Amino acid sequence: MFESVDDVISQLQAQGYICDKNIATVVFLAAQLEKPVLVEGPAGVGKTELAKVVALATGRDLIRLQCYEGLDEAKALYEWEYSKQLLYTQILKEKFSEAMAGATTLAEAAERVGREDSVFFSDRFIVPRPLLRAISAEQPTLLLIDEVDKSDPEFEAFLLEVLSDFQVTVPEVGTLEAKQKPIVFLTSNDAREMSDALKRRCLHLFIDFPNEELEVRILDSKVPGIEQRLAEELVGVMQRLRKLDLKKTPSISETLDWARALLALNANELDEGMVGETLNVILKYEGDIKKAQSELGRLITRKTEEKEAGGEAKPAGDKPAGDAPKKGVLH
To answer: What would the pLDDT profile of 195-208 be if each residue is shown by its tens digit?
Structure first.
């Protein structure tokens, strides 16, 4: 497992995940205290990826439960194979006839049938789903309950038994306790508020958009072929874009997509034409694209002026040289 918070940072970095000390501390405590982690934050900031790299770093099998509206116990816990049970009944019909031979009363016949309950009510008829697979696994696992906020409150209440005692109850068989306690990550995009009961059982981690320095490091790690200058320009634009009132704010996943798109187009700098042609890579709504185009146009113009002036913006019009140039909206 992990020896320290710094060891978490090192091991996750070895798996290609750049994280700060806050994230590493929560991961370390989750492993030490054997408590689930509820990871919240905007879409695309690396919540699911965090669970994946922790599984890789710890050598655990990743078992993922993707949540959605209408998800119930049968799809998350187990399904009972009634057809297989019926087939067993047909195959063993002769054996039951032999077992009941000589029974003089209905009660006696029922008693003999009851002795064979274990033949028809056992785990051989259970099809395990993600939760039961994590509970019954012989080797340590990592259970990822992804986008738990999309599930119904009733399903969230059902999860409490799993998260409290790491056990599940199967009516046909009984209560099954975990052979190896899994590390549990739950992710939420804040589609709805999680209950206090669920939060009480978990360590809380909020992953926000990364700052400029961390985002450049992530970009360097994930897109190693990008030049430093282009990476810094790209991240600077992304940081300013997130300050706009957009329907969907671009996240780190869009940063990586944009960087790869620019590399595919052999771009070595962000000029107005290149930005205009590739905005649809990072913005998903036409209104957002139009809003960004007007703001980015001013940003690119100002960058061009700074280059021509040797790094200093030219004075505008007849304004005194001492007056500082006005910054664009994205600044």
So the answer is: 999 999 999 999 99
